[in-house]
Write a structure and sequence with these properties.
Strand order of the largest sheet: 5-4-6-7-8
Largest sheet: 5 strands, parallel
Distance between the termini: 128 Å
Structural class: alpha/beta
CATH topology of one domain: Rossmann fold
Number of strands: 8
CATH superfamily of one domain: Glucose-6-phosphate isomerase like protein, domain 1
Shape: flat
Strand content: 5-15%
Mean pLDDT: 84
Order of helices and strands: HEEEHEHEHHEHEEH
Helix content: 40-55%
Amino acid sequence: MEQNTSLQQQLLEAGVHFGHLKKKWNPKMLPYIFAEKKGIHIIDLNKTVDHLQETAAALKQIAKSGKKIMFVATKKQAKEIVSDCAKKVNMPFATERWLGGMLTNFNTVRKSVKKMQSIEKLLSDTNAESLTKKERLTLARDKDKMEKVLGGIAQMSRLPAALFLVDIGHEHIALAEAKRLGITTFGMVDTNCDPNKVDFSIPANDDATKSVAIITNYITAAIAEGLAERQAAKEEDEEEVDNENETRAARLQAEAEAEGGNRGRGRSSEGNSGPKRRAPQGGGARKPQAGGKR
């Protein structure tokens, strides 16, 4: 309870509770609005804390399962914050411009990413003396332009399992593509948006830099915790496998030694109890037969 109170206090200080003007509100946000003050709606921070913790728990499980979570925020005040948080947990992000078809036409986007990587490799190759200065300059400009848009998804080899959006109204194209592909969506929802458009909504001020920062950092901490638990579980599994292999090797060695000992004893007993010569009957030398030649 104390933790919730301290979190609520931090959200209050960051201005998460400030909504939009009353005339811009979406009626579906009514359950999350606490009051109205000077024509501005005030968001209920109790609801914000509950939804934030629920979202963090869901994202933690997704990260623990080893799947990718894509961060999307093309608003000026959220770009740097979101890109830094995504880099901390090694997740893909889009902060400059959402390319149409970045998810629904992913194969084509991957071709553009590979082209960018090939240009980068060509420019970094010191032996590429065949390129003129003008060609190098043109390639460098193309690479910079592509990296600005595609740099955040360069390491994303497959579609993400979830999308985290800052301002779902501003990122409506990304939201529509995610819905079409059945990707789970998480988002910061202000009083001018429809919270039912995303699977997990966080009622919060999506315009203030401090508000975006505190929500995104909380989400990032949960993802980092999930990744740490995954790594710990992986190490435990590897340790168990190593222990099992050692035990199996020791057992096989013991069985081999026991089998070798039994064979040695069998050979020695066979050597001691070899076939004995039968003594001739009568107990003496054979006598010459009567009537024989002398």
